[in-house]
From TrEMBL:
It comes from the Bacteria. This is DUF58 domain-containing protein. CDD domains: vWFA. InterPro entries: DUF58 (IPR002881), vWFA_dom_sf (IPR036465). Gene3D superfamilies: von Willebrand factor, type A domain. Residues 50-260 form the DUF58 domain.
Length: 311
């Protein structure tokens, strides 16, 4: 278990020992909600507004037994944030994502994060889809909410291939051409791309009315270059070998990394993109809490838009 003020947070190394992605996702989501009242996310309550008839899969805790006694029918309380969203998960499976200084790689972490978000969205009755890509789209599952759809997404994540290259620009162009309806896009990547080109592509999505959430993944070793001895480093993309003394290179490396991170942040701020930076040793409950904030903001925006349209 790990911290962040909640005793139920699961250490990612322990989480990755669970072979099934679906069980990993379920453990994170259930742990998050069981610890919600002790966490920084306490207060994500919703306001009760009306009733609707019970359908299989609804949480039985919200059944109104007094109404059942009067009508002999099952009804559940409906809440204001019970608004269906269309969410497309965009998962980077490029070769650079195969790196990991921990027992798990960035790719392992990214697939588990995708599964967790998908599982959570399914519990909220949101339509969720998945696109995986390296230098081109590999898998494309459109957003749906129906029986069996979540299982299809989990199988695709289980079978996600190891990419042979990294090129965020080309697949994002492809993805922009495939999206027909507005919704929320969740991009999960290590963002090894020129920031100006990344900003242009994210700008396409925003201009077309999509909300964008970006999870930027970093391995702890990438974040610190915390190696003690000189070693032979291999470029994951080109295969180029380079002998490096980390102690001599660390200051310059960290300076360039910080410049890249700041440029990404500035671009996201300019575009109105929600950016969350995650090291792969961070409990996934933290990411789920961040995403929940973004989801609630989008729901509030949709609600406000409906109010304006009624006037």
């Amino acid at each position: 278990m790990a911290g962040s003020g909640a005793a139920t947070w699961i250490d990612p190394v322990a989480l990755m020992q669970i072979r099934s992605l679906e069980l990993r996702a379920k453990a994170v989501v259930e742990g998050f909600f069981s610890g919600l009242h002790r966490s920084p996310y306490h207060g994500f309550s919703v306001e009760f507004t009306e009733y609707r008839q019970y359908v299989p899969g609804d949480d039985p805790r919200y059944l109104d037994w007094r109404l059942y006694a009067r009508s002999d029918r099952y009804y559940v309380k409906r809440f204001e944030d019970e608004t269906n969203l269309r969410v497309q998960l965009l998962l980077d499976t490029s070769r650079s994502m195969q790196y990991g200084s921990l027992p798990h790689t960035k790719a392992d972490y990214a697939r588990t994060l995708s599964a967790t978000l998908g599982y959570f969205l399914n519990t909220q009755r949101d339509a969720v889809g998945l696109m995986t890509f390296d230098d081109r789209i590999e898998e494309m599952i459109p957003p749906r909410y129906r029986p069996g759809h979540m299982r299809r997404i989990m199988l695709a994540l289980e079978q996600a291939s190891e990419g042979t290259a990294t090129d965020l620009v080309a697949p994002l162009d492809q993805i922009a051409g495939q999206l027909r309806k507005r919704g929320m896009l969740v991009l999960i990547s290590d963002l090894l791309a020129p920031v100006d080109e990344l900003e242009t592509r994210l700008g396409y999505f925003r201009v077309r009315g999509h909300e964008v959430v970006l999870f930027h993944l970093l391995d702890p070793a990438e974040a610190t270059l915390d190696f003690e001895q000189p070693a032979l480093f291999v470029d994951a993309e080109s295969g180029r070998e380079l002998y490096v003394d980390p102690k001599a290179a660390r200051a310059r490396y960290l300076e360039r990394l910080e410049k890249h991170l700041q440029a990404v942040q500035t671009s996201c701020d300019r575009l109105g993109v929600d950016l969350y930076r995650l090291r792969t040793d961070t409990p996934l409950e933290n990411a789920l809490g961040d995403f929940l904030r973004s989801r609630q903001r989008m729901i509030a925006s949709q609600r406000a838009q409906r109010v304006r349209q009624r006037r």
